Amino acid sequence: SNIVVLISGGGTNLQAIIDACKAADYPGKVVGVISNKADVYGLTRAKNAGIAHCVLSHKDFSSREIYDQALIKQIDLYQADVVVLAGFMRILTPEFVQHYQGKLINIHPSLLPKYQGLHTHQRAIDAGDTDHGVSVHYVTEELDGGPVILQAKVPIFAGDTAEELALRVHEQEHRIYPLVVKWCCNQRISMHNDTVLFEGKAL
Ligand code: GRF
Q: Are 124 and 116 in contact (CB under 8 A)?
């Protein structure tokens, strides 16, 4: 399958997926990387891996709708089968989300449905939680609200800073995201009426 990854930053999750694709039996390859920000390190990672990449800056478009149409055009040029959001810091229009329904996934650094939105690590610490983690989910029109495919938990230790906790979560992100992307590529998972099916059965 053709994987297109959307980024806005450093792209450590992108790197984890690129690396996973090197396995001979991995059922997909990253054919394109799109960033809404210029000069981010994730683009260098794409370049170093010989992967087609481009910047589509939201600042060059007059509305979210027109930007998302351009995004669709570019993703379809790459002939994507699976669209992976990896630190892509943009809210997507319902039109975009519907266009890729069932092949669009996101990674969110919390145990959803807890802590949708930003600053998840600090919020988990401030709440006195002892567990935190990461979720990979299908993208639906509700921000950070689509059905969860896979989560990984990490402990929160007394005295943890948000940075320390983020590092611990990142290790899990890099483990589970390539795995879920693989399941999308070999179609072991699918979404029906907002539920995730694994090999045709509800999780
Ligand atoms: C990750 O923490 C991910 O969970 C969130 O954005 C961050 C992206 O990090 N959605 P990177 O660019 O993959 O390093």
A: no
Report ipTM (2 d.p.). 0.95
- CA–centroid distance, residue 16 to ligand 1 (Å): 11
Query: Best substitution site from 33, 84, 107, 123 to test ligand 1's pocket, by max atoms within 8 Å of Cβ?
Result: 107
Ligand 1 centre from 13 Cα, in Å?
6
Total number of domains constituting the chain = 1
CATH assignment at residue 114: 3.40.50.170
Six-digit token string for 152:
């990984």
Q: How far is CA 117 from CA 109, 120, 143, in A?
A: 9, 7, 8
The model's pTM = 0.97
Q: Residue 52 sits in which domain range? A: 2-202
